[in-house]
Amino acid sequence: MRFLSFTNEGVLLYMSGRHGDYMGLYLRQGRLNYFIFNPSRLDKSLGGVHFCSEAAIELNKVYQVEFSFNQALPQAVSRRKFYSTALRLNGETVQLVDFYIDDLQFETPVYFGGGPSGLDLHVLDFEGRLTDIVINGQALNSVEFNKRVSGC
């Protein structure tokens, strides 16, 4: 996905699921954040990850962002599979960890440029442009944005 932001705060993408699972890609104080959480895992293991870019983005500049979770990696040690959860900005890895969250079940709609009504009031709608959105290898050609977002 590519984005250009007019402000230092705002939700680029938000998804939620059946068991309180949620994922967000957002700007806070100019830094890109990626957060995945599965509360049903708290009794069994770590239930989420949070990544944040070290440097703040520049306003009115186009960025390419890629994020993934539960992506199988080819190496295996002692029959243990490795999975990556990652955030990349302009082709550079912000963070990559060997981490798998099971039982994630995201549902539609996927929110671009904001979240559902009732989302935490401290999280602002994104003001800027989003384009080249791909989820699970499928390009999204027709996406509904909040009123402050347009395609690049």
Task: Name the descriptors.
152 residues, mainly beta, 13 strands, 53% strand, globular, ConA-like_dom_sf, Laminin_G
Please give a structural write-up.
The protein has 152 residues and is an all-beta fold. It has one domain (2-150): Jelly Rolls (Sandwich). The protein has no helices and 13 strands. It has a 6-stranded mixed sheet with strand order 8-7-6-1-10-13, with no helix packed on it. It has a 5-stranded antiparallel sheet with strand order 5-4-3-2-9, with no helix packed on it. Strands 11-12 form a two-stranded antiparallel ribbon. A hairpin with a 2-residue loop joins strand 3 (22-28) and strand 4 (31-37). Residues 1-152 form the Laminin G domain. This is LAM_G_DOMAIN domain-containing protein. It comes from Macrostomum lignano. It holds the Pfam family Laminin_G_2. InterPro entries: ConA-like_dom_sf (IPR013320), Laminin_G (IPR001791).
